[in-house]
Amino acid sequence: MADLGESGLKEPGYCGGHQPISMEKMTLLTLWYLANQESMRGIADRFDVAKSSVHIVVHKLTHHVAHKLAQKYINWPTPHLMPSVTSDFKSRANFPGVLGALDGSHIPIEAPSAHQLEYNNRKMTHSVILQAVCDNSKKFTNCFAGYPGSAHDSRVLHSSQLFIQAEADKHKLFPSDAYHLVADTAYPLHSWLITPFKDTGSLTPQQTRYNTKLCQTRVVIECAFGLLKGRFRRLKMVVCKVESIPDIIITCCVLHNMCLMNDSDELLEIQDMDVGMNGSGRVCGFESSQGKIKRNYLVASM
């Protein structure tokens, strides 16, 4: 975050003569804000700045990170790395071809002043949705945040650049037909997005085995969300303007990846599972013909 490229931020209400807030203090203030649930007034007192400055600093830095640095730290695996990515995933449950695990997680927010019903999730609380893909090390490789909590996972997916790019030019993201993501039944089945069989009580032993292996592979994204929310406790309840929330979420995802890249020991002490609400809780009925063919092939190969 020190890449912001600005020397500092003057506190509002002063017409010169007052020392600008240093880049170091801006960075530490923002990190503290993201890592805790302390009030803006408490943060202002802690860092000896005006309350209005806390809002400005957090907004400026999270906006910069989300729009300028995210592409540097949240990266889709390169074709050169894809074999090792799939090999790492295969070590979990012997499920082949997996480039990432996909899921959505609800980020609780204060009731917005407008469109409250749109942000009401199935638990009748307000939230926005983070859709993410992670690799076997829990590093995020794709993130999309901000959709209202009432949205179905499949609707969020269809609005994301991930889906748009995968449908427009699948081989750019999945250069081999053997590659795919794994997700739960809330998502549509495609040749590049593999989901479980819906259990209606008549699954074959092979289909049940396939479902078990997929679940054991997919669970890594829930662990990634658990690490994210455990370290950045602001995500347990975000109180700010709705339009600023996606930047805050994506900034936390960037910092999450930076921690993993630097082997932060603190991550080991954080609960390794998302105890919040994931997904919409609804099943998606769409299954493409190519997706069915590929899934049946995977079942037969296990």
Task: Give an account of the 3D structure.
- The chain has 302 residues and is an alpha/beta fold.
- It has two domains: 2-72; 76-301, no CATH class.
- Helices cover 43% and strands 12% of the residues.
- The protein is built from eleven helices and seven strands.
- It has helices spanning 23-35, 40-47, 51-73, 82-93, 153-159, 161-168, 170-173, 205-218, 220-231, 245-261, 289-301; strands at residues 8-9, 21-22, 98-108, 127-134, 140-148, 180-182, 193-194.
- Strands 5-4-3-6-7 form a five-stranded mixed sheet, sandwiched between helices. It has a two-stranded antiparallel sheet with strand order 1-2.
- Helix 3 (51-73) packs across helix 10 (245-261).
- It starts with 7 loop residues before the first strand and ends with a helix.
- Mean pLDDT is 89; it is low at 4-17.
Summary, kept brief:
The chain contains eleven helices and seven strands. By secondary structure, the protein is an alpha/beta fold.
Task: Please estimate the helix content.
Answer: 40-55%
The count of domains is 2
Straight-line distance between termini: 45 Å
Average per-residue pLDDT, rounded, comes to 89
What's the SSE pattern? EEHHHHEEEHHHEEHHHH
Give the secondary structure arrangement, pairings included:
Elements: E1 8-9, E2 21-22, H1 23-35, H2 40-47, H3 51-73, H4 82-93, E3 98-108, E4 127-134, E5 140-148, H5 153-159, H6 161-168, H7 170-173, E6 180-182, E7 193-194, H8 205-218, H9 220-231, H10 245-261, H11 289-301
Parallel strand pairs: 3-6, 6-7
Antiparallel strand pairs: 1-2, 3-4, 4-5
Helix pairs in contact: 1-3, 2-3, 3-10, 4-8
